[in-house]
Amino acid sequence: xxxxxxxxxxxxxxxxxxxxxxxxxxxxxxxxxxxxxxxxxxxxxxxxxxxxxxxxxxxxxxxxxxxxxxxxxxxxxxxxxxxxxxxxxxxxxxxxxxxxxxxxxxxxxxxxxxxxxxxxxxxxxxxxxxxxxxxxxxxxxxxxxxxxxxxxxxxxxxxxxxxxxxxxxxxxxxxxxxxxxxxxxxxxxxxxxxxx
Length: 196
Fold this sequence. Notes:
- This protein has helices at residues 43-54, 134-150; strands spanning 20-22, 26-27, 29-39, 61-64, 68-70, 74-75, 87-98, 103-114, 120-130, 157-169, 175-184, 187-188, 191-194.
- The chain is mainly beta.
- The protein has a single domain (23-187), classed as Pyruvoyl-Dependent Histidine Decarboxylase, subunit B (Pyruvoyl-Dependent Histidine Decarboxylase, Chain B), CATH 3.50.20.10.
- The protein is flat, with a radius of gyration of 25 Å.
């Protein structure tokens, strides 16, 4: 008996990968925080880290933004303990100083509303840091926000609901850090197209 060899022809169907194209992500939920730290050992691994700890964000890897709040942004409560090493994106003001020198950090932000529609458009944020007292800081923050508003937004929008966040102290140790931040916890991803 002859052995019969049967060849089977297999066809592979080409599988197209599912693709989702998204636009620039839009920061959505944020919380406010502030803190101070001082150290006789170091600045970055000392007083800065301790200021992050005081603000309860020391377990994050911090990334900083420039100063724009999207219209969908909304303030929320600070979340519970994060995943150690997760990324925290923020708008932050940081001031470092030496023993006996005041460290002051501040953020001011307000919301733009259409003069015709009344709809919320987005927000503007300004940061300031230096050896100011809190009154001087408030003046500088207010002037910065006003300048930003007048140079590009005042024709179309009203600026309302202004908030100021500040932290100030004089370290008794070699290095001191004061910081304030708006920290983002969620994002909107606009879908441009997809075949999935």
